[in-house]
Amino acid sequence: MSGGSNDTQPFISLRGVHKSWRAGGTRIDVLRHIDLDIRAGTSTVIVGPSGSGKSTLVHVLALLTPIDSGEYLFNGSSVYAVNRWWDVGIRQSIGIVFQDGKLIQNLTALQNVCVPVSHRGIWPRQQKKLAKRALAQVGLLDRLDSYPNQLSGGELIRCAIARALVTEPVLILADEPTGTLDSETGSTISDLLFGVVKEQRTLVVVSHNPLLAERADRVVSIRDGILDEV
Ligand SMILES: Nc1ncnc2c1ncn2[C@@H]1O[C@H](COP(=O)(O)OP(=O)(O)OP(=O)(O)O)[C@@H](O)[C@H]1O
Ligand SMILES: [Mg+2]
Questions:
Q1: Euclidean distance between CA atoms 7 and 33, whole angstroms
Q2: What's the pTM value of the predicted model, to 2 decimals?
Q3: How far does residue 191's CA lie from ligand 1's centre (Å)?
Q4: By alpha-carbon position, which residue is closest to atom 26 of ligand 1?
Q5: Distance between CA atoms of 173 and 171, rounded to whole angstroms?
């Protein structure tokens, strides 16, 4: 799938997207009919208070959380109006770094990074080659056989970034990737993420780290379910 789109058409477009969660007897309207256009090859930082719906938005963009109403256009196609196979195609062109990493604890770094390419009819030897290339990009070639509980916080995030990059996605989503890291490690993560934008990919990252906000093309905030430019 092409990572680009023409100048007139946004790469990603949310139109009147509404999402509510039910917790116990109450309904929380997390995203209130939001509109968001993102151009190909750009970087966007999302900020907002805890619980404001940043992760929900990222999961919606990753097609991991269905929306209640509205429309999601990915490279001009409505992702909810097309068939499942096309959906799978879109999913495979999205790489996500989850807020809590979500690495599989009983797999090594190399095996974790192989997971996204393990069910695509790719030979194991080729899977490992792709995974090693992604791990090399994040500087983790010397930790291939380490399990997640043997990795530092910064190494865990770098491994999660490698797993997000292994399919060569055109859209990279990262949820608080520099969360509790010291500023030097945070700056390495920031360099890695913004490096991928240079390769004509699109980056959407949830972060309150000023290092990332300064480098982003754009910062948007979510508060009370409403999205605003910052
Ligand atoms: N699966 C779920 N079921 C019910 N409620 C949920 C679910 N996921 C999130 N929520 C609620 O939706 C709201 C937004 O959650 P979300 O994780 O998107 O916030 P966030 O902005 O990412 O917060 P943080 O900065 O703490 O990571 C919260 O009130 C949360 O409790
Ligand atoms: Mg979150």
A1: 25
A2: 0.92
A3: 28
A4: 50
A5: 7
Whether ligand 1 lies within 6 angstroms of the CB of 60 is answered as no
Give the model confidence (pLDDT) of 177-210 as tens digits: 988 788 888 888 999 899 887 777 999 999 988 8
CATH 3.40.50.720 fits 40-63+93-229, yes or no: no
Please write the tens of the pLDDT for every residue from 7-16: 568 999 999 9
14-60 pLDDT, tens digit each: 999 999 999 888 999 999 999 999 999 999 999 999 999 999 999 99
| Helix ranges restricted to H, 93-151 | 109-114, 124-137
Report, in this order, helix, strand and coil percent for the chain, each rounded to 5.
35, 25, 40
**Rounded-to-integer distance, Cα 100 and Cα 2, Å:** 29
Per the DSSP assignment, residues forming a β-bridge with 72 are: 14
CA distance readout (Å), 118 to 83, 124, 165, 167, 193: 23, 7, 14, 10, 24
Cβ neighbours, 10 Å, residue 228: 11
